Amino acid sequence: MTEQLKQKLNDSAVLRWSVLALVAFTMLCGYFLTDVMSPLKPMLEKELLWDSLDYGFFTSAYGWFNVFLLMLIFGGIILDKMGVRFTGMGACLLMVFGCGLKYYAISTTFPEGAMLFGFKMQVTLAALGYAIFGVGVEIAGITVSKIIVKWFKGKEMALAMGLEMATARIGTTLAMVLTVPLADFFGYTDEGGAFHTNIPAPILFCLVMLCVGTIAFFIYTFYDKKLDASLDAEGLEPEEPFRMKDIVYIITNKGFWLIALLCVLFYSAVFPFIKYAADLMVQKYHVDPKLAGTIPGLLPIGAIILTPLFGSLYDRIGKGATLMVIGSVMLIFVHSMFALPILNVWWFATVIMIVLGFAFSLVPSAMWPSVPKIIPEKQLGTAYALIFWVQNWGLMGVPLLIGWVLNSYCKGPVVDGAQTYDYTLPMTIFAMFGVLALIVALMLKAENKKKGYGLEEANIQK
Ligand SMILES: C[C@H](N)C(=O)N[C@@H](CCCCN)C(=O)O
């Protein structure tokens, strides 16, 4: 071994933060595509003749393969067995392929009445592409979580996870604020003088970004190899081998299940909400459809600043379980305000969205770094995968539920050729998820006290 490898590679702060930048950028690209269709919902209905059920079906596709084909669980096992380099590269390629299929579906004009699996051909193909992408981006997510633990354990782990999530949120923000301007910029005016937005343009842009994100991850793999070599040189095993019986250890752990439950309940009230937030702004707060993504765009912007702040707080002071309780209370408040028929004006929606930004930062910044306190490192890939799997039931089912509720119970009159909706019932459903999340967060706090997981303790080892 060469002299310079004698020190562990992750002891170098510059190097650890640089590799974090690489993998976080890959996640940014993934999150961009995840939400790129949200601000386009009114245009999809107007230009491509989708309805809310089509949109809900398409959005739910994100979780199909993860949930029903257990792709996430296989992904976690592959991650623990084959390592982060192989799994991460595979995940990136799946994201690129899924995005390519989605682009093909949206940019192609299919014969009128063409159907596949009972849905419009275009909707089904776009959904299939999104489902493949969903496998890729979720496996990339667990891989990056494991990478962060590998490089930052005993160091600034929660801050690193917070920064990674903050970077990913930039992707969500770009989706919210760039999508409609991009679609408009590449739009065209037909012979009748009517202007048409170019819906495929932002998706093509995402495809290019995903290719760049894949290259960033490829560069990371060289550093990962070097880290393994430096751990070897120190006489440390890079990653302990994983055995199938480790799964039993994970699923018989009550703390694990409480985190998984909190995860599905909390995220069911946030990510599916984002999918409908732009439409909510138009329908309830009368925001111009062209600007509708701007207010929900504040949500990830707030999280970009706050998630690392709260992560750093957790690293230094602890109080992880308490942060999760506070975040859940805020979630209930926010969705109740959106549900109540009060102050239907844009500035009120803006204030409420900022409060949601706090909740959206508090819970993730405390929840994800808490997992390594409950589960040993060699089982982390599988543990994160199982948590993501439980979460994906919500990410898949809730958008479909909301789309169905809107289509069945919330339709108002058609105004200027556009369908209107009353969002009271969907927002009440989101608030109920908040109530359940709070109950689970309180149970987790109690379990932590009983078992001494250390969730209320600081992460940085003095
Ligand atoms: C959607 C995805 N399954 C997810 O939960 N993402 C989390 C981040 C999880 C990784 C933390 N290192 C998010 O808040 O975006």
TrEMBL record:
Keywords of this entry: Lysosome, Membrane, Transmembrane, Transmembrane helix, Transport
Catalysed reactions, as listed in the record: L-lysyl-L-alpha-amino acid(out) = L-lysyl-L-alpha-amino acid(in); L-alpha-aminoacyl-L-lysine(out) = L-alpha-aminoacyl-L-lysine(in); L-lysyl-L-lysine(out) = L-lysyl-L-lysine(in); L-aspartyl-L-lysine(out) = L-aspartyl-L-lysine(in)
Keyword Transmembrane: yes
Topology relative to the membrane: Multi-pass membrane protein
Subcellular location: Lysosome membrane
Chief place of localization: membrane
Molecular function (Gene Ontology), one example: transmembrane transporter activity
Domain of life: Bacteria
Gene Ontology CC annotations of this record: lysosomal membrane
Pfam families membership: MFS_1 (PF07690)
Annotated transmembrane regions: 14-33, 53-79, 86-105, 125-149, 170-189, 201-223, 255-274, 294-314, 321-340, 346-371, 383-405, 425-444
Residue ranges occupied by any Major facilitator superfamily (MFS) profile domain in the UniProt entry: 19-449
Cited InterPro entries: MFS (IPR011701), MFS_dom (IPR020846), MFS_trans_sf (IPR036259), MFSD1 (IPR052187)
Family to which this protein belongs: Belongs to the major facilitator superfamily.
Subunit: Homodimer. Interacts with lysosomal protein GLMP (via lumenal domain); the interaction starts while both proteins are still in the endoplasmic reticulum and is required for stabilization of MFSD1 in lysosomes but has no direct effect on its targeting to lysosomes or transporter activity.
Record function comment: Lysosomal dipeptide uniporter that selectively exports lysine, arginine or histidine-containing dipeptides with a net positive charge from the lysosome lumen into the cytosol. Could play a role in a specific type of protein O-glycosylation indirectly regulating macrophages migration and tissue invasion. Also essential for liver homeostasis.
Protein name (Swiss-Prot/TrEMBL): Lysosomal dipeptide transporter MFSD1
Organism whose genome encodes this protein: Bacteroides faecis
